[in-house]
Design goal:
The protein is α+β, with helices and mostly antiparallel strands and 55 residues long. The protein has 1 helix and 3 strands.
């Protein structure tokens, strides 16, 4: 059996879905991968800082 967990990523405000094995608690799949959303959040922060400095 598999459990479907979802939450909103705090930095990007995008939905993160995880497929979790009920027997082991292991995350089988993340859609999109959390590391991708973390990277996207850092890029947004960098672009925001860059624009704040030029304005």
């Amino acid at each position: 059996m598999v459990r479907l967990d979802y939450r909103v990523h705090p930095e990007t405000r995008r939905v993160l879905v995880k497929l979790v094995d009920l027997a082991t608690g292991e995350v089988m799949k993340e859609i999109p991968p959390e590391r991708v959303l973390d990277t996207l959040g850092r890029i947004h922060a960098f672009v925001g800082q860059l624009l704040d400095r030029r304005v």
